UniProtKB/TrEMBL annotation:
Biased composition (Polar residues): 1-18
Top-level lineage group: Eukaryota
Bias type Acidic residues, positions: 363-375
Name by which UniProt lists this protein: Longevity assurance proteins LAG1/LAC1
Key words of the record: Endoplasmic reticulum, Glycoprotein, Membrane, Transferase, Transmembrane, Transmembrane helix
Transmembrane parts of this sequence: 102-124, 145-163, 192-211, 218-237, 276-297, 329-348
GO CC terms: endoplasmic reticulum membrane
Organism: Dendrothele bispora (strain CBS 962.96)
Length: 381
């Protein structure tokens, strides 16, 4: 790829793709690999809608039973928060973690599968066609970036709102550790955390099922997903949701800028895409590197602000921050930062090329069309 504005890239990853072109393009109905009937909800909106409807219908039926007020509704944990702290006040309810959270995560994995399909096909494809995008490969990429933009914009704004309710506002990192354990969560924080976990598991499923065409950074993207799930799971398990919220927000906000730049590039909005790219570089630099290095600094140097009584691993008390947990927190965050620096290098390379050459186009775009041009030529022949 020569001097190009590289924004039609894999979701969350500003890495250029050198994926070889195929000599033919299968029809849209054959572009996706077959999946087990048990996983049809991952690719068919009607099936995911059916799965989502089952707990809702069962919940409603239970509520109609005469003894429903005497027993908790067993279907509520699928879509409502569980494990409320019994003595938390009605005007400030708090929630703890528990096994029912697995049901909540499973339900929202299906939920995000439905949302992804609806956005990529029902919302983004008509918009893409309006702007003259016709090739199946580019329609797929546009849909992926549209979904990424909507998700990260919403979650970034939600994370911002939640941090405003916490003592960690704006990256007051000492409160990651002061008063630990932070085991009782505000309902918004718990829902936000579990839905983030569901999203990343669903995205890993997308990769596993081949629902998105692999790019040259496929290995790095898979590593990113595994490290993210590792961080989310451990931080939730050991009551480090405050630092988790800070990390999430530092990732989601620049991802929204990145996906938006990619969308503008596909729509050939030349001036707008350059302006959005500049904003993306600034946001990426500040959130993904400056703030994340600050978080790493806090893990290394402020960890000892944890109360002495919480530096002993006692499951019943929710205290887990003994000496080796410092490294359990630091290492995956450092690995995540290594991946971010790898992609940051590629972003800066794009920026340098854009400055050096006045024509800022992505001449790699046609490599992402799955050989549709070859198909057209074959049909003419």
């Amino acid at each position: 790829m020569s001097a190009s504005f590289q924004t039609d890239l894999a979701p969350q990853t500003p890495l250029e793709s050198n994926t070889p072109e195929r000599r033919f393009s299968p029809p849209p109905t054959a572009r996706r690999p077959p999946v087990s009937p048990w996983l049809s909800w991952a690719v068919r909106p009607i099936d995911s809608l059916k799965v989502l409807a089952v707990p809702l219908i069962l919940y409603a039926n239970w509520q109609l039973l005469p003894w429903s007020n005497d027993f908790p509704n067993p279907f509520a944990p699928f879509f409502l928060l569980s494990h409320r702290v019994p003595d938390s006040p009605p005007d400030d309810p708090r929630y703890a973690k528990g096994y029912y959270d697995f049901l909540f995560i499973a339900y929202y994995i299906v939920f995000f599968s439905l949302v992804r399909q609806l956005i990529t096909f029902n919302l983004c494809r008509p918009i893409a066609r309006y702007y003259g995008i016709r090739k199946e490969g580019k329609l797929d990429r546009y849909g992926e970036q549209g979904y990424a933009f909507i998700y990260f914009a919403v979650m970034g704004a939600w994370g911002y709102r939640i941090m405003g309710q916490l003592p960690t506002w704006w990256y007051r990192t000492e409160y990651f550790w002061i008063d630990y354990p932070h085991w009782d969560m505000k309902p918004e924080l718990k829902r936000y955390y579990l839905m983030q976990m569901a999203y990343w598991i669903q995205q890993l499923l997308v990769l596993a099922l081949g629902l998105e065409k692999p790019r040259s950074d496929y290995a790095e993207l898979v590593a990113h997903h595994f490290v993210t799930i590792w961080l989310v799971g451990w931080s939730y398990l050991v009551n480090l949701t405050l630092i988790g919220n800070a990390v999430y927000m530092s990732m989601d906000i620049p991802d929204a800028f990145l996906a938006f730049s990619k969308l503008l590039n596909y729509m050939r909005m030349e001036r707008a895409k350059i302006i959005s790219f500049v904003f993306m570089v600034v946001a990426w630099t500040y959130f993904r590197h400056i703030l994340n290095f600050y978080i790493l600094w806090s893990v290394w140097f402020e960890y000892d602000l944890t109360p002495e009584s919480s530096k002993i691993w006692i499951w019943e008390n929710g205290t887990y921050l003994n000496w080796w947990m410092k490294y359990q927190v630091f290492v995956p965050l450092a690995l995540l930062q290594v991946l971010q620096l790898f992609w940051y290098y590629l972003i800066l390379r794009i920026a340098v090329r854009a400055i050096m050459i006045s024509q800022v186009d992505d001449d790699r775009s046609d490599d992402e069309d799955d050989g549709d041009d070859e198909d057209d030529k074959a049909k003419k022949d």
